[in-house]
Design goal:
The chain is mainly beta. It has one domain: NE0471 N-terminal domain-like (2-Layer Sandwich). The protein is built from two helices and seven strands; from the N terminus they run E-E-E-H-E-E-E-H-E. The longest helix is centred in the C-terminal third of the chain and has 7 residues.
């Protein structure tokens, strides 16, 4: 099982800084998801910035979420 999200910070250009339970800090790019279904709403920067950690993953105020394994495997190291 991959590490889970402990903290999330929204950044410019639809990127997220994710801190995982193993201490790794990675960057996840949400842009590829912005044209898909409910994720289209996240183009609104205020809604995008509403992201919070949720049960080892992340969630936005309108209920959008992503699989914690996807977040870990598809994010890039900050170092």
């Amino acid at each position: 099982m991959n590490p889970r999200v402990k903290n999330v910070k929204p950044k410019d250009n639809y990127k997220l800084i994710l801190t995982f339970t193993n201490g790794e800090v990675k960057i996840f790019d949400v842009k590829p998801y912005l044209g898909i279904g409910i994720f289209k709403e996240l183009i609104d920067v205020n809604l995008f910035n509403s992201v919070k950690p949720f049960l080892g993953s992340i969630q936005w105020q309108n209920g959008q979420d992503l699989c914690p394994d996807t977040l870990y495997m598809e994010s890039k190291s900050t170092s």
